[in-house]
Amino acid sequence: MPSDANQGGSIFGGFIMSQVDVAGSIPASLHAKGYVVTRAVDSFEFKKPVLIGDLLSCYADVISTGRSSVSIKVDVYAERSRKGIVECVHVTEATLVYVAIDEQGRPRKIETDN
To answer: Which domain holds residue 42?
Structure first.
């Protein structure tokens, strides 16, 4: 949306970062079977600009699990239509670490299905 854009017409990086965090938290919480919090952003690369009107899709996968943490890779694609031509562009990739927490907000062990 225009309210999410800078003067040059590209979407603010912070908006994209928030969407990546939401997307990454979904497989993290499913994998941890409960609440998770964002612990770290290991990497975040803006490969191409996101433009007003682009349709964003975030794809997130578990890449590793620790005792109480889970690392997630998120790839973001923008589908854009210009002059009747639709293209899909890989715009962002990131790796985030989430920590499983208990009801008191303390780290808890992630139980595995083994």
So the answer is: 6-100
